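Entry 12.
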Amino acid sequence: MKKLILIATLLVSSLAVSAQNTSQSYIEKFKDNAIRIMHETGVPASIILAVAMHESANGNSNIAQKLNNQFGVKGGGTSVYYQHKKKVHTSYKKYDSVMDSFQDFARIMTERKQFSHLADELTHYDYLGWAKGIQHSGYCSSRKWSAQVLNIIQKYGLNAYDERPQEQTQLTADKQ
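Predicted 3D structure (tokens):
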């Protein structure tokens, strides 16, 4: 009987884990959008992906799942969602889609006075400067934030998505 309970518990927990996004699945799902936004705004794709992965736990956090908010962006009002049949009021911004969240993050980085100097001073190849600049400009309160974001970029090689389009084309051609 104990073995049966153990097997059932393992099966249920493995199903719960497989339902969650992993880092690799998150990257695959959103890398093309991040690259497109990078070319539109100048914010590095690696920064877009790494900040989203960090802030949303690869899309698994409550605000990512309930509000489509991948970046922990606070809104002007109150958003409401339900968790375990309880109404939750939060100051986090609600988005119609995950892509809206990605685009709003890039807009914040390029249009808000607090961050817009980064787009003027840095290229979309300087993910290190962007990570440190975002932290120093007050995006987060943690002193370890930029190190954590940079660790995600390095661990998953996200800076490869920051390459020039012709270099990406050449890399693809070389692999074939």
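Annotation: Residues 23-41 form the longest helix (19 residues). The beta strands are 74-83, 86-92.
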